[in-house]
User: Which sequence fits this backbone?
């Protein structure tokens, strides 16, 4: 078992990465149904929470079927982050996670996310403030460093553990790299090997197949892996990784029936949580992923994206099922 204080996870747990405009409750529901062991909300702006911005407040929604679930916060002000830890705790998650890894300009250039990798004392102070303002376990997600000349994640791991974090996830790229090139997990392995480190260490970056998940488990010794982009439109990756790690055998890919059922579940949850207008609109980004490689996928996606109401979406999904389309790629 892997424990984050009172949260018990299985051996080699699979985490769903917090992804902006992706990791909402509907998406989390389909990932949980396929075996995700620990999930996080989309990252939430501390400034937005303080202003009681509707979008930030809505992101606090967590549901019992998602547990264990963490609320992830980002911000640039120490006191504000502490205050937001208290606000987030009231929403009833199982843990609070701090984002020190987001590389996008709108976040990093405002002194939040990965920008804190250039100011370790402030990162430590901010983490301590969050720990102080919640009774829940606090975890952190970060990167190797700002750039290849400042690979300071080993120092970060020790200092954040010292102020109370109870798990650490490291994305194997620097901020400057964004999502380009291949993730480097060697420093993640060094953190895990450090005798001072007692908390679980999770690796993130490029896990897009069962084979890679098992290879990285063996090579780098991490306690678990976090999966992000590979789960978009393909939540089955969690069940496939679990099966391969346990047996060394690959599962067959999802059938057409499974793809349609999962897409429909996602759509149902989207309508339920967001309402008909936003639920239909925001689901459009997922169709291409659910039916990638399917015979006639382009035309089905176009029709689904153009559908203006739920009845039309359901009817098109029924047409896809009746077509008995097969995977061609």
Assistant:
């Amino acid at each position: 078992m892997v424990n984050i204080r009172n949260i018990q996870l299985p051996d080699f747990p699979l985490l769903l990465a917090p992804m902006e405009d992706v990791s909402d409750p509907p998406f989390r529901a389909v990932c949980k149904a396929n075996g995700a062991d620990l999930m996080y909300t989309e990252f939430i702006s501390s400034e937005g929470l303080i202003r009681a911005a509707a979008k930030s407040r809505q992101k606090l929604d967590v549901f019992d079927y998602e547990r264990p679930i963490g609320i992830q916060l980002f911000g640039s002000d120490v006191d504000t982050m502490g205050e937001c830890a208290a606000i987030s705790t009231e929403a009833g998650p199982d843990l609070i996670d701090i984002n020190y890894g987001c590389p996008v300009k709108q976040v990093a250039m405002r002194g939040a996310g990965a920008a804190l990798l250039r100011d370790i004392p402030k990162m430590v102070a901010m983490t301590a403030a969050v720990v102080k303002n919640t009774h829940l376990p606090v975890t952190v997600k970060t990167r190797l460093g700002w750039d290849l000349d400042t690979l300071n994640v080993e120092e970060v791991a020790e200092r954040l553990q010292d102020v109370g974090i109870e798990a650490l996830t490291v994305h194997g790229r620097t901020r400057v790299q964004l999502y380009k090139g291949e993730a480097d997990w060697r420093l993640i392995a060094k953190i895990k090997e450090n005798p001072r480190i007692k908390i679980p260490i999770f690796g993130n970056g490029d896990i897009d197949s069962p084979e890679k998940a098992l290879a990285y488990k063996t090579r780098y010794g991490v306690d678990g892996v976090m999966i992000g982009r590979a789960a978009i439109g393909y939540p089955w990756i969690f069940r496939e990784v679990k099966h391969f790690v346990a047996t060394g055998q690959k599962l067959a890919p999802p059938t057409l029936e499974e793809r349609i059922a999962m897409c429909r579940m996602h759509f149902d949850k989207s309508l339920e949580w967001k309402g008909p207008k936003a639920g239909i609109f925001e689901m459009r980004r997922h169709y291409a992923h659910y039916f990638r490689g399917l015979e006639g996928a382009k035309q089905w996606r176009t029709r689904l994206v153009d559908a203006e109401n739920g009845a039309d979406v359901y009817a098109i999904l029924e047409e896809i099922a009746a077509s008995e389309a097969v995977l061609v790629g």
About this structure: Residues 256-274 form the longest helix (19 residues). The mean pLDDT is 94. The two ends are 38 Å apart (CA to CA).
